[in-house]
Amino acid sequence: MVEKAKASRKPGGRKGKTPRLKRVPGKPLYAQVEEVIRQRLIDNYWKPGEALPSEFELARELSVSQGTVRKALNDMVAENLLERRQGRGTFVSEYTERRALFLYFNLIGRDGQRTMPLSRILACEDRQATERERDRLQLKPGSEVIALHRIRSLDSTPTIVERLTLPRELFPALDGDAKPPENLYRFYQGEYGITVAKAAESVQAVAADPLEAQLLGVMPGAPLLEIDRVAVTIDDRPVEWRVSRCNTENYTYVAERG
Amino acid sequence: MVEKAKASRKPGGRKGKTPRLKRVPGKPLYAQVEEVIRQRLIDNYWKPGEALPSEFELARELSVSQGTVRKALNDMVAENLLERRQGRGTFVSEYTERRALFLYFNLIGRDGQRTMPLSRILACEDRQATERERDRLQLKPGSEVIALHRIRSLDSTPTIVERLTLPRELFPALDGDAKPPENLYRFYQGEYGITVAKAAESVQAVAADPLEAQLLGVMPGAPLLEIDRVAVTIDDRPVEWRVSRCNTENYTYVAERG
DNA sequence: TAGTGGTCTAGACCACCTT
DNA sequence: AGGTGGTCTAGACCACTAG
Fold first, then answer.
1. A203·B255 Cβ contact <8 A
2. Rounded CA gap, B220 and B225, in Å?
3. What is the pLDDT of residue B18?
4. What pLDDT was estimated at residue B79?
5. Quick check: B248 and A204 CB within 8 A?
6. Is the CB of residue B229 less than 8 Å away from at least one CB of chain A?
7. DSSP H helices in B22-153
8. What is the CA angle B223-B228-B231, rounded to 5?
9. Using 50, 70 and 90 to split pLDDT, how confident is the model at A2?
């Protein structure tokens, strides 16, 4: 899809070879450095897992000091966009299993253990977005979506019934036959160059409907935890809407405050 | 050139004397600066709302550079322990209404608005800690606790039934007559010098029992959101165990991920 | 105007990793 | 041995707030 822009970096006219940053009133230099790097991540100029140039190289390229580059990079580490390892370099964050588990999977067992869920897809549908879906995914009327219905088990016990909606335009080649794997965010990244950078969740208690009750092995009307999540890219475009209904008899949802 | 630091640490030095920091292998200087400042917060040497000395003063006192003090202070701002305002100074965080609402109250209305709850105390009891309470609050067998039962309304609608347990030893003067106010964390801080620094929450869906159902105006067995929270001080001592059961028909619990 | 935090630079040395 | 990020220092200037 997006080609490495290295060759096209110097197509002649534009701004010369590199964006030479200069002081702008009201906008710190390090913020401008962040913008440049962020844009390159969006463009897939540096790909997930790849190493960035060293602090000194970036500093030379952008005509700022190494300390300014350092502040920009550290800020982006705090946003989970980059990772730094002493002696090795600075790398674009990648969606490993571990990362998915700790960043985006918040159901833990009574013993405090995190377990990787196992999913079974119940249905995969291709259709027009409902009004609610358009609202959540910021889509125009008439937009197509892919709707996924699956059940996820923790320790071999069916625990989560999940409905996902993806904008068709972001995932052109995805269809019902090519079943997506367990780690969807990694799949989005590897196959489509789409990186999920953050997600907003809202949580409620709901009563299980008959189908959910049957799938989860509880009584209809039993209390379930509903997690409503919209995942967005680095540049804040919605990627996925996911509604998970969880049996919390043996698992709890965790959050840190303060 | 690094100053030789003289290393004249006096063995018989008094506590009130200035701790002169020196390099220790494996422990960065800024981490030591953080420790000193953190300990002073724990000791209430600087009180909530008070201004700290300037970066330069602290740097001189601790025999480190201003940049090192800066890093320590900024780290502690990220932990919500301090606040900095350009041109004014660095201040110890205080529990304002606004702060309590945004840091520790996570039920928001359908419209995304945060509302301050209004509480009515149903019971206030003084008794021995149960085993579960001892576990959560890290108390020794036989410890006394204060148990509070209250109902909280949002927009005049009873929405949360809450049970709180406080270690008696932390709140010696608190009794059933002196009813604590709405903002408990601020109360703890102002009256007892106890600062809640962070909290861990775990969330589940549960069925309303008959009493809760009556208080909240729902049917018995209706799904409620249960939030289980232990609040701890800067030095990680448990201050309060709180179990809130919420009617989430009109409110949702929010969290950010990534 | 004086004092504070915020930004930026330059250079030194250290700890760690790869070769 | 050479390169990377991590720490620490020193000093300059800017932006904001207060008296």
1. yes
2. 14
3. 59
4. 94
5. yes
6. yes
7. 29-42, 55-62, 66-78, 97-104, 131-137
8. 155
9. very low
Q: Report which of A78, A90, A102, A100 is spatially closest to residue A189, judged by C-alpha positions.
A: A100
Report the C-alpha gap between A113 and B162 in whole angstroms. Answer: 27
Q: Are B240 and B184 in contact (CB under 8 A)?
A: yes
Residue length, chain B?
258
Number of H helices, E strands in chain B: 7, 10
Give the pLDDT confidence of B57-74 residue by residue, as tens digits: 999 999 999 999 999 999
Which of B204, B224, B244, B254 is the best residue to mutate to test the A interface, defined by the most A CB atoms within 10 Å of its own CB?
B204
Joined tokens for residue A190: 């590897």
Interface of A with B in 98-117 (CB under 8 A): 103-104, 106, 108
Query: Does A94 contact B at CB distance below 8 Å?
Result: no
Mutation target for A interface from B79, B201, B202, B218: give the one with most A CBs within 10 A.
B202
Q: How far apart, in whole angstroms, are the C-alpha atoms of residue B168 and residue B191?
A: 14
Do A143 and A219 sit in the same domain of this protein? yes
Flag whether residue B213 sits within 8 Å of chain A, measured between CB atoms: no
Calculate mean pLDDT across residues A151-178.
Answer: 89
Amino acid, res. A170: L
Contact B195, B186 (CB under 8 A): no
- Find the residue closest to C4 using CA and C1' atoms: B87
- B183, B95 in Cβ contact below 8 A? yes
Confirm if B195 and B189 have CB atoms less than 8 A apart.
Answer: yes
B213 alpha-carbon distance from chain centroid: 30
Query: Is A100 inside a domain boundary?
Result: no
- Amino acid sitting at position A85: R
Query: What is the nearest nucleotide to B87, using C1' and CA?
Result: C4
Q: Is A178 touching B (CB cutoff 8 A)?
A: no
How large is the average pLDDT for residues B46-62? 96
How far is Cα B180 from Cα B148, in angstroms, rounded to an integer? Answer: 10
Q: With respect to residue A258, please indicate whether it lies within any of the assigned structural domains.
A: no
* Strand D atom within 7 Å of B85 CB: yes
Domain end, chosen from A94, A124, A142, is at: A94
User: What range defines the domain where residue B117 resides?
Assistant: 106-253
A78, A11: one domain:
yes
CA distance B103 to A3: 43
In terms of Cα–Cα distance, which of A85, A79, A80, A70 is closest to A30?
A70
Q: How many domains does chain B have?
A: 2
Q: Say if residue B10's pLDDT is above 50.
A: no
pLDDT tens per residue across span A63-87: 999 999 999 999 999 999 999 999 9
